[in-house]
Every structure is written in structure tokens, then in C-alpha cells.
Amino acid sequence: MKRSLTTFAAVMTASVLALAACSDSTDDAGQDTEEPTSEDTTEDATDDAGEEDADATQDGVLATVNHKYGPTEVPVPDGELRVVALGWSDAEIALALGVEPVAIHDWLGFGEENHGVGPWAVDLIEGDPTVIPRADADLDFELIQSMDPDVILNVNSGYDEEEYNRLNDIAPTISGPEDAANFNPGWEAQTELIAEALGLSEEGEELVAQTQELIDQTRADHPEFEGLTAVTGSKFGEAYGLHTGGDMRWDIIELLGFEMYGPAADIATPDNFYADVSEEQVEVFDADVAVLFPIGYTREELENDPLLSSLSVVSEGRAVLLEAEEPLSAAFSAGNPLSIEVVLEELPPQLADAVENLG
């Protein structure tokens, strides 16, 4: 399964490069070589002029994208499109569509040696994009401006309007869907918005369709998942978090046939990608099956957490506990078409083992 979307990305890269190489010759294409005759009327000449103006306007805009902060026009670039990818996984989606950003915000800490993307996307990078390290402070707007971007992708982000306005002053900036909660655009909408911004809407639809096909096939391969309850969550610091609808860490589980455990669904709010879980609420994780991973801890420490280990789902071996440093954990968090392939290859067998322990 992994090969299909990787091949798609490679084909898209070749297609984008071919289009860029041909762009300089389009000015001469389709020009009328015949001189106008005396039979042309003033009305015809006016109509022709209006059509030429409309075509010129249309040709000057690569895409018009409607998002949380209204419509944004992305102009046709002079050369290759210079993309700064700031949102969570925005760069990997651009790469899957054959477009290499000039700068990448390294949300998951993959590092400069990996160009700020996961191992499933590293081979798609041919240049040397600037890696912007993740930081709790404001974005480095001067650095972003120095990249001279044609478009800024900030689709999967915290949706701060002041931040958006500052970015949009630098270059046309694409935010998330109009009704999306912070860091919760949904993988399909994120992919489609990025594809639109790159002038690759049809390719984006195809990428979504191929990814959905992989999900559907995996679900068909595991009918034992249908109707069972599940949760996904994490431990960070002294707190716990429950992933909610719109966050791919839950959505992929639901797409495979599971239903959110009732007590978990009761506290899952639509205005954030996770819900805080207090020590008194840890029983919301006690579903038929749970997928849990640590942030700032090891898998062993997660397994030995006194509250989590007291739950039946953990003590009876129905919890899939991920190691923080393993690729699957990073892919589970990345939530884009390329990383979803990794999840679909590696997580379902572990879920099937957990289901067997239901007895």
C-alpha cells in the first residue's frame, strides 16, 4: 500500500517540473497570426478586447482559495512556486502533490537532517529547504519574509487571526477551513485546501480518493473492528489528553470501524483537537480497545502509570501502547496522506491483537 501514494507523489513531482519548464512558452501559444480585416466591427473589437482583459486577469491568478479568513488569490509565479509550509503536516501534503517548499516548519521535531519531515516523505525532497524549528514563541516573521514566498501554507494551525494577518502581509496565506477548530482541519479538507493553493485541485482530489481507498480496503480486511468501542489518547506532563473528532489520531480509528467509547464521547468537544482528562476521569480510556502514546515519557513509563495500568483495557492487553520515538507514533500524529500509509500498514495488526484479548 505504501508504494501507491509514494508513486503518486513521484509522478506529481515530475508533472510539476514539466509544467514549470513549459510555463515560459505559454505567452506565445494560441496567438492569432491573422491580421484583422476591414470587416471587423467596432463591437467585435470591443468584445475581443474585453475577452483578452478577462483572460489576462485569469492568467495572472494561479488559484483563488476560500478559507477561514476569506478568499485569497495566489498569483501565478514568475518561476517555480515558492512555498513556505508552516502548518502541521502542510509540507508533507505539498510534497505528496509534487511541490517542494522552500521552508518547512518542523512541528514534530524531525530535524534538519530530515528536512523537517517524516521518514515517509524525506525521499521526496531534492533540494535543501530551510527548516524552521518548532518553538513556543511567535513565528520568525523576518525569516519567513526572507524566503520571498509566493504563498504561505498555514492550514493546520492554531488559527490566530493576528498571526494570520502578519503572514498575509508577507505573502498570500492560506488558513484552515471556515468552521475548523484549532489544529483540527480534518485530513481531507487540509489536503484539498493545499492542493487548491498550489493550483492542483484535481490532483488533490485524486490524492484524497487514493488515501480513502487504502483506508476502506484496510477496514474491509478487518471486519472484527466493526462496532467495537475505542479511544486514542496520550500522557504529557502530569496530564492526560483524549483525541477528538477531526484529529487524525482518532479519525483513523473511526474510519477503520471503531466507535468512540461513550464516556469519552461525553467529554470530547468540537472546539479542540483533544480534551483534557483529569486523574479522576482516566476511566474514559477504558474502552474495548485503546491506542495510547507518551509525550515526554517512554512506553514503559506509560505502561506503568498507576492510573492507566489500573484500567481493564491496559491490564487485559487491549491497549496498543506506542513508543514515543518510533516512526509509527510520529506517523500517527502527523495525520497526512503519506503518514496515513504507514499507520495503515503497522497499526491494524496491533489493533487486531488487542481485539483478540477481548475474549
Automatic annotation (TrEMBL):
Entries under Gene3D superfamilies matching the protein: Nitrogenase molybdenum iron protein domain (3.40.50.1980)
UniProt-annotated location(s): Cell envelope
Gene Ontology biological process terms from the UniProt entry: iron coordination entity transport
Domain of life: Bacteria
Biased composition (Acidic residues): 25-56
Region (Disordered): 24-58
CDD domains given in the database record: FhuD (cd01146)
A GO cellular-component term linked to this record: outer membrane-bounded periplasmic space
Sorted UniProt keywords: Signal, Transport
Record-annotated Fe/B12 periplasmic-binding domain positions: 82-355
Signal peptide limits: 1-20
Sequence similarity: Belongs to the bacterial solute-binding protein 8 family.
Name of the featured protein: Iron complex transport system substrate-binding protein
Organism: Bogoriella caseilytica
